[in-house]
């Protein structure tokens, strides 16, 4: 690999020109300077054409295989329904082309296991888009946990929808693939892929048409975790509370704000110090929300300068944890 190759942007094909692509991923990719989108693909060619025009992409096509053969791109980015993700990711890994997949990467644990095995066998660079890991706030949390031991973590994650079926899947499966996968990724990263998980799902709301999940985890080192995940809120909100063995209490209030409470010294009760951190720059919002930062990580992994995280193998642990959520609702 030449120095020019190492320093040049990674050429990528972007597949799936829906709302998330237009509002988030394509603008984030354009903002970082380490990715160059050389083609956009969508089964509805008009959407691909609009994306190409809006983001200055030189080519638009209706098929992934045609794009791979005609552009000789270095990587593939996917943002569509999970069925398409499996097919397109398989095409990429068969060519040993790095692939970034927006969650959910697969419709089921069996399919996720197939992707994970294929990625290991092909030694492919793979990454799943979990932007919450890459928010400004979560980066602060990772730093605060260094040299300390986690005792407990609790996640509140509330969305306003969607409710009902999605991508051709019934409501519970759609809920898992849309929302639960995000929270379980955070819990798995903190508590370990071998954590014991127990879940209770119920219906809430005027017509009992919205879902609420209570999840309990028991992980490595005796740490415990819990989460409440719902589609019953008026708007999207998430927060995280973490307690360490040193007595540090960390509240993640938003993607850009963290409150930390510490004892005056180890073993003290009460009268601790309270600090609040929040983003103090007027930087790009795609970085604060994690999207630009995760794509930077992927680009650097393609060049061998960083580790892709989470990988398909990492994501398999998340899907296995979701298997405890049954389709029956209390």
Descriptive notes:
With 330 residues, the protein is of the alpha/beta class. The protein contains eleven helices and 14 strands. It has helices at residues 3-7, 19-32, 45-55, 64-71, 82-94, 109-122, 136-145, 171-191, 285-288, 291-302, 312-322, and strands spanning 10-15, 35-41, 60-61, 75-78, 99-102, 126-129, 150-158, 196-204, 210-218, 224-230, 237-244, 249-254, 257-262, 273-278. It has an eight-stranded mixed beta sheet with strand order 8-9-10-7-11-12-13-14, with helices on one face. Strands 3-2-1-4-5-6 form a six-stranded parallel beta sheet, with helices on both faces. Helix 6 (109-122) links the parallel strand 5 and strand 6 (126-129). The longest helix is centred in the middle third of the chain and has 21 residues, at 171-191. The protein is globular.
Describe the secondary-structure layout.
Blueprint: H1 3-7, E1 10-15, H2 19-32, E2 35-41, H3 45-55, E3 60-61, H4 64-71, E4 75-78, H5 82-94, E5 99-102, H6 109-122, E6 126-129, H7 136-145, E7 150-158, H8 171-191, E8 196-204, E9 210-218, E10 224-230, E11 237-244, E12 249-254, E13 257-262, E14 273-278, H9 285-288, H10 291-302, H11 312-322
Helix pairs in contact: 2-10, 5-6, 6-11, 8-11
């Amino acid at each position: 690999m030449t120095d020019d190759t190492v320093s040049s942007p990674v050429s990528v094909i972007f597949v799936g020109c829906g709302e998330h692509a237009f509002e988030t991923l394509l603008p984030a990719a354009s903002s970082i300077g380490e990715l160059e989108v050389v083609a956009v693909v969508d089964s509805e060619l008009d959407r691909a054409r609009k994306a190409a025009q809006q983001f200055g992409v030189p080519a638009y096509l209706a098929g992934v295989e045609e794009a791979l053969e005609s552009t000789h791109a270095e990587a593939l980015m996917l943002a569509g329904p999970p069925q398409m993700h499996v097919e397109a990711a398989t095409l990429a890994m068969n060519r040993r082309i790095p692939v970034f997949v927006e969650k959910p990467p697969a419709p089921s644990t069996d399919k996720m296991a197939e992707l994970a095995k294929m990625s290991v066998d092909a030694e492919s660079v793979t990454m799943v888009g979990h932007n919450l890991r890459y928010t400004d706030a979560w980066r602060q949390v990772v730093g605060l946990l260094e040299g300390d031991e986690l005792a407990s973590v609790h996640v509140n994650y509330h969305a306003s929808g969607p409710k009902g079926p999605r991508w051709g899947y019934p409501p519970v499966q759609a809920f898992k693939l849309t929302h639960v996968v995000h929270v379980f990724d955070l819990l798995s990263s903190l508590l370990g892929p071998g954590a014991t998980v127990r879940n209770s799902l119920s219906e809430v709301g005027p017509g009992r048409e919205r879902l609420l999940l209570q999840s309990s985890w028991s992980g490595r080192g005796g740490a415990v975790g819990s989460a409440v995940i719902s589609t019953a809120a008026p708007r999207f909100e998430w927060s995280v509370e973490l307690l360490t063995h040193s007595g540090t209490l960390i509240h993640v209030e938003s993607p850009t704000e963290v409150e930390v409470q510490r004892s005056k010294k180890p073993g003290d009760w009460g009268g601790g110090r309270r600090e609040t951190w929040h983003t103090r720059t007027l930087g790009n919002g795609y970085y604060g929300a994690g999207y630009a930062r995760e794509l930077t990580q992927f680009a650097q992994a393609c060049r061998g300068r960083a580790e892709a995280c989470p990988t398909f193998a990492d994501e398999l642990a998340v899907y296995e944890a979701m298997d405890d959520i049954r389709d029956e609702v209390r």
